[in-house]
Write a structure and sequence with these properties.
This protein is mostly helical. It is about 65% helix and about 5% strand. It has 15 helices and 6 strands. The strands form 3 sheets. The protein has a two-stranded antiparallel sheet with strand order 1-2. A two-stranded antiparallel ribbon has the order 3-6. A two-stranded antiparallel ribbon has the order 4-5. The termini are far apart.
Length: about 350
């Protein structure tokens, strides 16, 4: 049963637009799904390699801006007076290029920052995210700066000769986000259950022992960073084409905090953890907004998070697994053999 649970959950999620017609709740499902994808990518680093990236939103924003610019086109002057003119390309091309560009920067950051550990790695990732935000804010000719990139085209699906379909409706975009979420889940699942994934977990559990048996630390950590950044870039591309407007606020630190909360409360190092944590903390503000003011909404949000951390320190998913998966019975102890003591 546990083996088929992800497939059954996917089928259940596919029925959501059939019984929820309210655009407000569909919008909440779409945005929550996008951030669940981003949280899953962060979980690959935090949960399976033990590396806390507090600048993960940089890859999310890079994917968003790259996909938007490829789809809109641009005319910008580089150093030396060289002018680069790019005509608009199809949206799906922009999303793919956004994934590749985010993955490239994941490789660069991984190569540079995985030479250090702990607080130094956290500082490097935060600094990278801030540099990306400042570039988006100040390179006005390319990104429009604080004026934002607007009129971003919607995702278009189709093939030449068969026609094209623009995903304007929330129902159609919901299924697109669900499909990307499912593909990301499969990619991460196949990776962490492979030899590469076992090497990543070994590095997290005991790096010295892993190195002693021949595991290349930098190689596997950089690979995790590249895959993680690419998936975050895909989430950013979906976000840009859904909102149809993007500005430097996409690099705000609060988005990284949201991803970390989803991973920690759901259960880091588990495939379902970011999904469960994302659904809970994505919908707490949605449901509380109807009867609480803005200040009380965030108070409830914080109290709920603190309760989960204190009551379920390993996260929701590991706690559920511990409750419902019965431990294997211990073998019965063999009866002690009687010893005959001969008296002289």
């Amino acid at each position: 049963m546990r083996r088929y649970l992800p497939f059954l959950s996917l089928l259940a999620a596919a029925t959501v637009p059939l019984w929820i017609q309210d655009p407000y709740f569909l919008n909440a499902f779409i945005t929550t799904g996008i951030f669940i994808i981003a949280a899953m990518s962060l979980n690959l680093l935090l949960g399976y390699t033990g590396q806390l990236s507090l600048g993960h939103v940089a890859f999310f924003g890079i994917g968003a801006y790259t996909s938007a610019l490829v789809s809109l086109g641009f005319n910008v002057e580089l150093l030396g007076g060289i002018r680069v003119v790019h005509e608009p390309w199809p949206v799906w091309t922009g999303i793919v290029i956004g994934i590749l560009v985010a993955g490239f920067f994941g490789y660069v950051v991984g190569k540079l920052s995985f030479r250090v550990r702990g607080a130094y790695f956290v500082i490097v990732t935060i600094s990278f995210a801030e540099v990306a935000r400042l570039i988006a804010l100040n390179w006005v000719e390319l990104t429009q700066g604080p004026l934002a990139l607007n009129s971003i085209p919607p995702v278009t699906l189709g093939l030449p000769g068969l026609g094209y379909y623009d995903l304007y409706s929330k129902q159609s975009y919901f299924y697109l986000v669900l499909a990307v979420l499912a593909v990301s889940y499969v990619v991460i699942s196949r990776l962490v259950n492979s030899r590469v994934g076992r090497a990543m977990v070994a590095l997290k559990e005991n790096e010295s022992l892993a190195v002693s048996v021949g595991i290349d630390v930098t190689r596997y950590l950089v690979l995790a960073a590249v895959v993680s950044a690419g998936i975050a870039g895909a989430a950013g591309g979906l976000y840009a084409h859904y909102l149809k407007i993007i500005d430097p606020d996409v690099f705000l630190f609060v988005y990284t905090v949201t991803m970390v909360i989803m991973v920690i409360t759901g259960g880091k190092g588990t495939l379902a953890g970011p999904v469960v944590g994302g659904l809970i903390f994505g919908f707490i503000p949605v449901f509380s907004r109807s009867f609480l003011g803005p200040e009380l909404q965030w108070i409830i949000y914080g109290i709920f998070m603190i309760l989960i951390v204190f009551v379920l320190p390993q996260g929701i998913v590991p706690a559920i697994e511990k409750w419902f998966v019965s431990p294997s019975p211990k073998p019965a102890a063999l009866p002690a053999q009687a010893h005959v003591v001969e008296t002289p």
